[in-house]
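Re: that backbone. Tokens:
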């Protein structure tokens, strides 16, 4: 039942009904906790964090992401840990304009995805890294899938790179992301 409520919560979130989504995620987390299903509890808690992030409630999102990381570490769910690092990275990028911390989170996620050979997630991490370096190369053009950063007077925390170095890194990561599907298809074909 916990998984079904979590999945229904995802549908509600996608359709924009974040209130219903949060209620379903909370119910899912409670059921999973009662059943001692730590992994499912972590997934529901992570989804609560993602929902808070998508509506700009970053403090709440950060709390839920930290709870999800704790649960994932407790049960050894590395994929969930890596996905949570991506969410935290997006938060650092959007909320704090702290590109150095976002970079650390994205790289942590990429390392886990690579270790686990999760090529689809590797492509996502490569794309986020590319977007991050693009934002460094072209300040003021930052974007994410969930939110658009509105310019203010805060100076972003940016690694020491020239625009051309950052753009080169962005292009490298985008190229790596584009190679992933072909590599994954080649692996599937070779095993057939």
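Recovered sequence:
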């Amino acid at each position: 039942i916990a998984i079904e409520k979590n999945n229904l919560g995802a549908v509600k979130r996608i359709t924009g009904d974040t209130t219903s989504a949060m209620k379903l995620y909370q119910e899912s987390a409670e059921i999973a906790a009662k059943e001692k299903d730590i992994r499912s509890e972590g997934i529901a808690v992570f989804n609560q964090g993602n929902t808070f992030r998508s509506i700009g409630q970053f403090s709440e999102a950060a709390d839920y992401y930290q709870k999800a990381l704790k649960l994932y570490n407790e049960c050894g769910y590395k994929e969930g840990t890596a996905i949570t690092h991506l969410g935290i990275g997006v938060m650092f990028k959007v909320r704090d304009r702290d590109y150095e911390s976002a970079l650390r989170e994205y790289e942590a996620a990429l390392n886990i995805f690579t270790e686990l050979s999760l090529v689809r997630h590797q492509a996502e991490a490569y794309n986020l890294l590319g977007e991050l370096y693009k934002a460094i190369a072209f300040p003021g053009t930052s974007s994410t899938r969930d939110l658009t950063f509105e310019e203010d007077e805060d100076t972003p925390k940016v690694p020491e790179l020239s625009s051309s170095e950052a753009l080169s890194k962005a292009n490298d990561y985008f190229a790596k992301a584009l190679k992933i599907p072909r590599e994954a298809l080649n692996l599937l074909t070779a095993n057939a």
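Confidence is low (pLDDT under 50) at residues 144-153. The two ends are 36 Å apart (CA to CA).
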